[in-house]
């Protein structure tokens, strides 16, 4: 077995709201191999997004450790953190909110190239065109405003923005939940294709077990800030052990029927 | 430009734009409309308006051309008003962005400084500043901006506080953008709208403060301003009322025009709020 790309041990995080302490993450541990997809499912409000934001170093956990690429990820800050961020990218749920409303597709995609000096200024146009083609958009989209795109196109741009940095891991937080069903299927296909081509790892977070099943190698089920069950994707869907996993499968009736028949 | 179209649909905005455009054109064309030095003697003293075709608005007590004075005065008023507005917005947006984005102690400190500036009446602040540093157009501009930056600072800070929680700021952090770039390139341009909406009000207040300073003799002595003209005409209010009435009228029309423009900007911004979800 190869060394894990990401190793998370005992993450805890709670929020205070109105004098009440809400536990968002309760002793969460997981690990991920390079090129692997871990699906993270759970009903809304069970800490999935909190976990995503802790993993990409947007919010600090109260306890626990994260090793990413053999490095103490939580110990990084300032310039070394900004430099290391290129290896771990994130795609957000709302494809509109995730972009500066004044941005154009081209500016969104050149930002990462410029910040990490990945390509000389003269090569930006070409690199942006390459990225757009890779996510199934036309190079001509570069001149468009983000506001002129459809939800599916925006999410493709978001994926292209993450890909621009050639990361080892992309955290997808409900990345297809805001899209309609047909567009969702295209984006899922695109994700799998990109993984085959470049050996990316994903953490795919969703409340939609069908989508998670379609892309994941392994699935972890979250409930009330804890991972209650994890294992190979097929096994979790076929023989769920926890009540939470069973409830999620019951919520996707067509999936169960498909598996039984 | 959707904004421009919405602006042009506003009646008040159109009227204001016409007034200000006329005054601004006059101000810009001053060297051609009134090529002679407005401070030089042009004819007999105290010539009443509409008596001499060469001096349509007459002359003041030293025989200086009133029309030339008004045209050149428009230059000073608008230049000071615009410069003070730009300076106030620049200071205000930087302070507001840094306070809102940094949060914590930095925010506390900057906002207490803002409070301190806000409790001093603007005119007193300008008066104190100019009388200490001496009257020149530069000090007048800074003096007015010093009293005017606090409101934009508060408006920008409030916007930044809500914007910094948005996903696009998180996305910028995830791609490793430097915090200073996030604050000034990603957040600030999106936080400016409410501050721009009061920009015209700042210009109007600045024009009035400049006139008041000149009236008190604290304007730049080397340029004609409406305030100085009113002050000089004041002693002759009974014998030659036009000397103070004409520049006073110019001042009123200018400030009214700026207010109407501000009204139009407000209308246009509000209409956008109604049409977009």
UniProtKB/TrEMBL annotation, chain A:
<dbReference type="InterPro" id="IPR003439">
    <property type="entry name" value="ABC_transporter-like_ATP-bd"/>
</dbReference>
<keyword id="KW-1278">Translocase</keyword>
<dbReference type="InterPro" id="IPR050319">
    <property type="entry name" value="ABC_transp_ATP-bind"/>
</dbReference>
<feature type="domain" description="ABC transporter">
    <location>
        <begin position="6"/>
        <end position="249"/>
    </location>
</feature>
<keyword id="KW-0997">Cell inner membrane</keyword>
<dbReference type="GO" id="GO:0005524">
    <property type="term" value="F:ATP binding"/>
</dbReference>
<keyword id="KW-0547">Nucleotide-binding</keyword>
<keyword id="KW-0067">ATP-binding</keyword>
<comment type="subunit">
    <text>The complex is composed of two ATP-binding proteins (GsiA), two transmembrane proteins (GsiC and GsiD) and a solute-binding protein (GsiB).</text>
</comment>
<dbReference type="Pfam" id="PF00005">
    <property type="entry name" value="ABC_tran"/>
</dbReference>
<comment type="function">
    <text>Part of the ABC transporter complex GsiABCD involved in glutathione import. Responsible for energy coupling to the transport system.</text>
</comment>
<keyword id="KW-1003">Cell membrane</keyword>
<keyword id="KW-0813">Transport</keyword>
<comment type="similarity">
    <text>Belongs to the ABC transporter superfamily. Glutathione importer (TC 3.A.1.5.11) family.</text>
</comment>
<dbReference type="GO" id="GO:0055085">
    <property type="term" value="P:transmembrane transport"/>
</dbReference>
<keyword id="KW-0472">Membrane</keyword>
<dbReference type="GO" id="GO:0005886">
    <property type="term" value="C:plasma membrane"/>
</dbReference>
<protein>
    <recommendedName>
        <fullName>Glutathione import ATP-binding protein GsiA</fullName>
        <ecNumber>7.4.2.10</ecNumber>
    </recommendedName>
</protein>
<dbReference type="InterPro" id="IPR003593">
    <property type="entry name" value="AAA+_ATPase"/>
</dbReference>
<dbReference type="GO" id="GO:0016887">
    <property type="term" value="F:ATP hydrolysis activity"/>
</dbReference>
<dbReference type="InterPro" id="IPR017871">
    <property type="entry name" value="ABC_transporter-like_CS"/>
</dbReference>
<dbReference type="InterPro" id="IPR027417">
    <property type="entry name" value="P-loop_NTPase"/>
</dbReference>
UniProtKB/TrEMBL annotation, chain B:
<dbReference type="InterPro" id="IPR035906">
    <property type="entry name" value="MetI-like_sf"/>
</dbReference>
<dbReference type="GO" id="GO:0015031">
    <property type="term" value="P:protein transport"/>
</dbReference>
<keyword id="KW-1133">Transmembrane helix</keyword>
<feature type="transmembrane region" description="Helical">
    <location>
        <begin position="239"/>
        <end position="262"/>
    </location>
</feature>
<keyword id="KW-0571">Peptide transport</keyword>
<feature type="transmembrane region" description="Helical">
    <location>
        <begin position="123"/>
        <end position="149"/>
    </location>
</feature>
<feature type="domain" description="ABC transmembrane type-1">
    <location>
        <begin position="74"/>
        <end position="262"/>
    </location>
</feature>
<keyword id="KW-0472">Membrane</keyword>
<protein>
    <submittedName>
        <fullName>Peptide/nickel transport system permease protein</fullName>
    </submittedName>
</protein>
<dbReference type="GO" id="GO:0055085">
    <property type="term" value="P:transmembrane transport"/>
</dbReference>
<dbReference type="GO" id="GO:0005886">
    <property type="term" value="C:plasma membrane"/>
</dbReference>
<dbReference type="InterPro" id="IPR050366">
    <property type="entry name" value="BP-dependent_transpt_permease"/>
</dbReference>
<dbReference type="Pfam" id="PF00528">
    <property type="entry name" value="BPD_transp_1"/>
</dbReference>
<keyword id="KW-1003">Cell membrane</keyword>
<keyword id="KW-0813">Transport</keyword>
<keyword id="KW-0812">Transmembrane</keyword>
<feature type="transmembrane region" description="Helical">
    <location>
        <begin position="195"/>
        <end position="219"/>
    </location>
</feature>
<dbReference type="Pfam" id="PF12911">
    <property type="entry name" value="OppC_N"/>
</dbReference>
<dbReference type="InterPro" id="IPR000515">
    <property type="entry name" value="MetI-like"/>
</dbReference>
<keyword id="KW-0653">Protein transport</keyword>
<feature type="transmembrane region" description="Helical">
    <location>
        <begin position="78"/>
        <end position="103"/>
    </location>
</feature>
<dbReference type="InterPro" id="IPR025966">
    <property type="entry name" value="OppC_N"/>
</dbReference>
């Amino acid at each position: 077995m190869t060394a894990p790309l990401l190793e998370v041990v005992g993450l805890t995080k709670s929020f205070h709201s109105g004098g009440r302490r809400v536990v968002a993450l309760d002793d969460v541990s997981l690990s991920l191999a390079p090129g692997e997809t871990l699906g993270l499912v759970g009903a809304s409000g069970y800490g999935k997004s909190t976990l995503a934001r802790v993993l990409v170093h947007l919010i600090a956990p109260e306890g626990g450790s994260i090793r990413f690429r053999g490095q103490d990820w939580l110990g990084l800050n300032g310039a070394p953190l900004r430099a290391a961020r290129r290896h771990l990218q994130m795609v957000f749920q709302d494809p509109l909110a995730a972009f500066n409303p004044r941005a154009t597709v081209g500016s969104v995609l050149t930002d990462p190239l410029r910040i990490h000096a990945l390509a000389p200024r003269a090569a930006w146009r070409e690199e942006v065109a390459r990225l757009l083609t890779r996510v199934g958009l036309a190079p001509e989209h570069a001149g468009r405003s983000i506001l002129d795109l459809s939800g599916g196109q925006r999410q493709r741009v978001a994926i292209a923005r993450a890909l621009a940095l050639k990361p080892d891991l992309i955290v997808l937080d409900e990345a297809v939940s805001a899209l309609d069903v047909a567009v969702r299927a295209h984006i899922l296909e695109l994700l799998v294709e990109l993984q085959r081509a470049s050996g990316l790892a994903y953490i795919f977070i969703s409340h939609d077990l069908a989508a998670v099943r379609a892309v994941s190698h392994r699935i972890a089920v979250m409930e009330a800030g804890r991972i209650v069950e994890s294992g190979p994707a097929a096994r979790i869907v076929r023989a769920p052990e926890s009540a939470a996993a069973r409830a999620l499968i019951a919520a996707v009736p067509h999936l169960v029927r498909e598996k039984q028949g | 430009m959707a904004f421009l179209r919405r602006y042009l649909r506003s009646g008040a905005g159109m009227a204001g734009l016409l007034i200000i455009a006329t005054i601004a054109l006059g101000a810009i064309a001053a060297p051609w409309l009134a090529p002679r030095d407005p401070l030089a003697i042009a004819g007999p003293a105290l010539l009443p308006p509409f008596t001499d075709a060469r001096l349509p608005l007459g002359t003041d007590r030293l025989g200086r051309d009133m029309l030339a004075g008004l045209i050149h005065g428009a230059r000073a008023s608008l230049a000071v008003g615009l410069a003070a507005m730009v300076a106030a917005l620049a200071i205000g947006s930087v302070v507001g962005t840094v306070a809102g984005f940094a949060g914590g102690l930095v925010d506390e400190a900057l906002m207490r400084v803002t409070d301190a500036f806000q409790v001093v009446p603007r005119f007193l602040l300008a008066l104190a500043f100019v009388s200490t540093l001496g009257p020149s157009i530069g000090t007048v501009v800074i003096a007015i901006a010093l009293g005017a930056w606090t409101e934009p600072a508060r408006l920008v800070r409030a916007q930044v506080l809500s914007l910094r929680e948005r996903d696009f700021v998180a996305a910028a952090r995830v791609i490793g953008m430097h915090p200073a770039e996030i604050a000034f390139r990603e957040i600030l341009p999106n936080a400016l709208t409410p501050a721009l909406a009061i920009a015209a009000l700042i210009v109007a207040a600045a024009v009035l403060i400049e006139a008041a300073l000149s009236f008190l003799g604290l304007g730049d002595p080397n340029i004609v301003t409406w305030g100085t003209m009113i002050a000089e005409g004041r002693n002759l209010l009974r014998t030659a009322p036009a000397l103070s009435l004409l520049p006073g009228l110019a001042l009123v029309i200018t400030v009214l025009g700026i207010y109407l423009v501000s009204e139009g900007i407000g209308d246009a911004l509000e209409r956008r709020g109604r049409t977009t979800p």
